[in-house]
What does this fold into?
Amino acid sequence: MSYKVLFGSYTKAESKGLYSASLSDEGKLNNLKNVAEIGSPTYFAVSKAGLLYAVDKQGGKGGISVWDTSKDPFQKTDEQIADGSSPAYVFVDERRQLVITGNYHKGLVSVFKIDGQKLIPTDDFQNEGQGPRPEQESSHVHFTALTPDDRLVVVDLGTDELLTFKLSDDGKLSDLIRFETEKGYGPRHIRFSRDGKHAFLLGELSSQLSVLDYADGKFSLVSTVSTIPADWTQHNGAAAIRLSNDYRFIYTSNRGYNSIAVFAVSKDTESVKLIQEISTEGDFPRDFNLTADGKYLLVVNQNTNNASSYAIDNASGKLTLVEKDIYVPESVRVYFEK
It folds into this structure.
């Protein structure tokens, strides 16, 4: 058995865009090839229909483009491009057949309706505000996802906020609820517990992982831990967060300390405990992912153009290095095809 993986990347130097590869049953990566030439596809999402929605940078313009993954190489079917920077995040709502993007530089949430292999814009939300840190001079929308009760949650690093909306079937946003984190927390990504009563929020600027209570669009803070050692004084930015299949363990990446932090979730889901820090064997690991069967974790290091793979101990949640120094250019997004 092997796992098919897709990589998104910057295209500032060696990369040509989107790449595919295979991860063997022994956890080793091979057959890397470019499957779509796109300008800095730093994030993408794949629908059940096999369409890939990628961040796309075209000179002084940015947006998303739509690609048919059944073609080799992938074939572009549509694009939604505007003046200014491209989004940081793309998400597919399968039930409503919507695509939602979060634009870090613009502080903008955009909603599109899926129409075959094309997209139709349906709504936008422009957030305003700022935080106390230099990186928080304005709104920076970094992540969007569905809540357990089918609302849209938006994570804004610049304003230290979680924004929760009702989302209609035709792609309209309404009934905004705001939750403010501690000032300077710099929230980046969020995941939810199996029962939907808790959320796990990762702070990029604070290098912290927080447990939140969640109900009816509202969040409240329960507990917080650090993702890095107390004696680490150099720069660090927490990046991605993933949960194990059984929801017992949380994995986060640290850019600067260059590690994967592994946390055990308490039985009541009220707290998490750091149980391992393991090197990513490279510099600036922005993203990583787990295979669908929970057997392996694959991480990419943006600045050193390399990936590392790890075997996951399903009993303890801990990682063991399998392979390092695997060439993947400028990669910042890891996706295992389902």
Observations:
- The chain has no helices and 28 strands.
- The mean pLDDT is 98.
